[in-house]
Here is the input.
Amino acid sequence: MKTSRNFSAIIAIAAFGVTACASTPAPIIGAAASQPRNDLGQGLYAQTRLAAYALRPSDQISVNVFREPDLSLAEVRLGVNGAVSLPLLGTIPAAGMTSRELEQDITKRLLAAGLRSPMVSVNIANYASHLVTVEGSVEDPGVYTFQPGSRLSSAIAMGGGPTRTANTEQVAVFRESPDGVMVALFDYDQMRQGTMLDPILAPGDRVVMGTDGLAVFYQELLRTLPALAVFATVALDNN
Here is the structure.
């Protein structure tokens, strides 16, 4: 009987541990946290999306010159130096400009090249510069493209969300800065509640979801339960 009670206790503890890992905090109704916590290294992280997008190396754009198909391109990629190669104009700088600013720049260059009243439109075909690496205790780690303005929670969702053994209180984000790679810590549960900043992602961010050692122990214990059950049965039969 003692062995049976111990075995039941093990099952109860393991079940409690797995249930605790799966719990979801209730959101706090009202305005979500918008200020970074400097004590967690969040000073580089923003709450507000940029009003206008500035082109970056590797982005793909389309350039259309009205009634000039030979001068138009359905898709062209900015090089690593931020320049783009266009018919008639050759290689011109583009990184750091908005699509509207690039339209104006191309128009001026075409006028200078002798084209009368050029009408130019520039559109972004692919934000290829926007890559985020998601790893650690997520279901589907990998490198993902994202839209400008996407948040940290979006990156975690793209990675399939936390695993059952994830430490959701420990989400590390690595970001390049003028001073080198900086690390900030975020709490996924607090972000879901709205009590911690859910920051805007930056191209090149690396997101690492931590692992809960206790949860790993419970998962390993659950995998051994069939063996424990056989052991308990044999012990009871012997008694």
Summary: The chain has two domains: 27-50+130-211, 60-126. The first strand starts at residue 60 and ends at 65. The chain has a mean pLDDT of 87. The CA atoms of residues 146 and 154 lie 9 Å apart.
